[in-house]
Amino acid sequence: MADQTTLESLLEMGFERNRAEKAVANTGNQGIERAMDWLMEHEGDPDIDEPYVPPVGNTLGAGDSQPSPAQPTVADTAEGKDSTEGGDMDLDALGGDPKQPMTEEEKREQVKRLEELMRVKQAERRERERAEEVEREKQRRKQGQELLQIRQKLQDDEMKKLADHRRKEKMEDKMAKQRVKEKIARDREERAQKFGGGGPSSMAAPPPPPAEPSPSSPTSQGPPPTKKEYDECRIQVRMLDGSVLTAVFKAQEPLAAVRVYVQMNGNTPEGQDFTLLSPYPRHEYSELDMEKPLKELGLVPAAVLVVTKK
Predict the structure, then answer these.
(1) Max CA-CA distance within the chain?
(2) pLDDT, greater one: 48 or 161
(3) CA 125 to each of CA 30, 122, 222: distance values in angstroms, whole numbers, following the listed order
(4) How many CB atoms lie within 10 A of CB 299?
């Protein structure tokens, strides 16, 4: 059975002439399978349907610029039928028997075989594309997992830094409280040594100044008495539950020392924020007042303060 040319086979299968000619030319007319592979690989090219323009001196299916009698060109093969019917060509000059035209049955068999080959090639291509898609999905998931791990590590590092910062703050707060406790203890020892070993609650208030006799008349009033200076004051603190704390403080100590003393010796719940107020005349002390000396606030030589919730 004579074989069709590659170009005719592609045209029989329904390919456009421009595509078929390009496939034959670009594969060097090396067979229908190579041409079909080229068509499937380049079917997405933007110029695939443009007319094929062969190079100067080149003919589709020919390896050299001039065809030899032993190797007819694609055009000669396609026109073999007409040449044979003319009967003017010498068969011996061609170097062999001319190609015989295919019967309809042979053409159908050839097209069927080529269509089956195309289906196999397309199936292989789809399988290859599916494998590439699976591989791309694996890479995408791998990159997503790596990105998630990086984000998790950054979050862990941030949480660790935050925990270290909070731990440092707690340590500094603890050390500050310890320094206040040590200062209170030193003040107690100094007061105990000064007054003969009594505790803060047993300190007696200094005696009030003797009352001056009231003058009989404004005209007989003498020079004003000299005001006594006190360097200590006795503070009585009434707690939230009604209990009372009493202590003696330096006149130049800030009101904050009284609040710390209440925190350390009172029965206020831990974490309970409170403030101090004077019942008469009623005055609630602010945070700025906490830095002022007791003498400046008028709490010398003795005063009563009340603990109240903020």
Answers:
(1) 170
(2) 161
(3) 21, 5, 123
(4) 22
Give the residue carrying structure tokens 């404004």. Answer: 218
Token code pair at residue 6: 């590659």
Instruction: Please state, as a whole number, how many other Cβ atoms lie within 10 Å of the Cβ of residue 23.
Output: 27
Give the percent of the chain with pLDDT over 90.
31
Question: Helix 32-41 and helix 104-195: axis angle, to 10°?
Answer: 40
State the residue for tokens 């100044």: 209
Return the SS3 of 274.
strand
Place of tokens 């003795």: 302
pTM to 2 decimal places? 0.30
Cβ atoms of 267 and 239 closer than 8 Å: yes
* Matching residue, tokens 């008349």: 217
Q: Which two tokens stand for residue 147?
A: 């990105």
61: phi then psi, degrees, rounded to nearest 5: 90, -5
Side-chain half-sphere of 180: how many Cα atoms within 13 Å? Answer: 18
The upper half-sphere exposure of residue 70, i.e. CA atoms within 13 Å in the direction of its Cβ, equals: 1
Structure tokens at 198: 């009594």
Give Rg (Cα) of the chain: 56
